[in-house]
Amino acid sequence: MGELSCFVPDAYTYVTFNTKYDSHGKVWMQAYAHAELTALTPYKIIANEYGQITAALADDTKYYYVGVPKTTVASGATAWLQIGGYVVDMVTPALDLEVGHALKLYDGAVADVGADYTGAASEFAVATVAGGAVSVQTVMLVPERILSTT
Amino acid sequence: MGVHFVPDAYTKATFEKRWDSDGKVFHNCIAHGALTAKTPYGIIANEYGPVSQALPAADKYIYVGVPTEAVDSGDSCWLQIGGYITGMISTALTVALGHGFTINTGAVADIAADYSGAAGEFATNAGTVASSTTHAVMLVPERIITI
Q1: Considering only CA atoms, which of A69, A66, A65, A14 is closest in space to residue A37?
Q2: What is the pLDDT along chain B (147 residues), one digit of tens a residue?
Q3: Are the beta carbons of B134 and B39 closer than 8 angstroms?
Q4: 20 to 30 A from B142, CA-CA: which of A75, A124, A142, B27?
């Protein structure tokens, strides 16, 4: 993805819409941090007048990407959030997942679909480790724009 | 990006997007008619690949593309679908900074709230708020469903 290295932010465009694909299968999307971002916590990636920006998950029906910052990000910083590929210890409410089950955005929070991933509108990840009710999950993020549900 | 595509009798435009160093994103298509510079069009597909169309009514999945200059009917062209653009044409709208633009009933409309990713939204206002038929916007390069 050589074109990524060519992107030059300016007064009108703070981040690139282009995605970054790493050799280990992880996919990243650039965004401007709307506030301090907590490591490994899912956030929305939407847009404002300067390009892509993060937002907290909300109880809505909206189109957006789900991005997970690898580390803490300061408010107003430009960051790459993981939107695809394997991630360990993604923060969620307490969920008791089964391997292969989908995670979705429902009522403003991450929820267990209770069935295998199917690509339905709000699904954004697949569980790769069975749980026991825990609040961190190991998942395969699916790098597609979703439609959250309520 | 896109430079390796060679059109033929079956495929007249590439589905591959072009990403420029200034953050702008372009989509190749065949012009369905004469395209007016800075006017938003839909980009869908026909039997030859991506093709432009007038903005459709509700419930159609399209990219919204803006030609930076006039295009002749039938020409292959690159329409801007993402990034900053000035002078985008609409009906007279008074739009606040950060508000979203949507495709509503076949026309560009103001959602009167910040861009939120709701159905139909394709751009964020990046310019002045006075009533105008031209706008500086940040195009969001995603396929939308019109409302």
Answers
A1: A69
A2: 456 899 999 999 999 999 999 999 999 999 999 999 999 999 999 999 999 999 999 999 999 999 999 999 999 999 999 999 999 999 999 999 999 999 999 999 999 999 999 999 999 999 988 999 999 999 999 999 999
A3: no
A4: A75
Q: Are residues A58 and A103 in the same domain?
A: no
Last residue of a domain, one of B56, B81, B106: B81
Query: A3: which DSSP letter?
Result: H
Query: Cβ B125–A44 below 8 Å, yes or no?
Result: no
Q: Are residues A35 and A103 in the same domain?
A: no
B111: containing domain: 84-145
Q: Which of B124, B143, B145, B147 to mutate to test the interface with A (most CBs of A within 10 A)?
A: B124
Q: Model's pTM, two decimal places?
A: 0.93
**Under an 8 A CB cutoff, do A17 and B21 touch?**
no
Judgement on whether residues B93 and B65 belong to the same structural domain of the protein: no
Last residue of a domain, one of B30, B48, B81: B81
In what helix (H) or strand (E) does residue A83 lie, and over which residues does it extend?
strand A78-95
Number of domains composing chain B: 2
Question: Are residues A76 and A99 both part of a single domain?
Answer: no
Residues B97, B135, single domain; the answer is yes
Is the ipTM reported for this complex over the cut 0.90?
A: no
Looking at the fold, whether A26 and A67 belong to one and the same domain comes out as yes
B118 contact A CB<8A: yes
In a domain, B44, yes or no: yes
Provide the pLDDT confidence category of residue A2 given band limits of 50, 70 and 90. very low
Chain segment A18-60, per-residue pLDDT in tens: 999 999 999 999 999 999 999 999 999 999 999 999 999 999 9
Cβ of residue B52 closer than 8 Å to a chain A Cβ = no
Closest approach of B5 to chain A, Cα-based (Å): 17
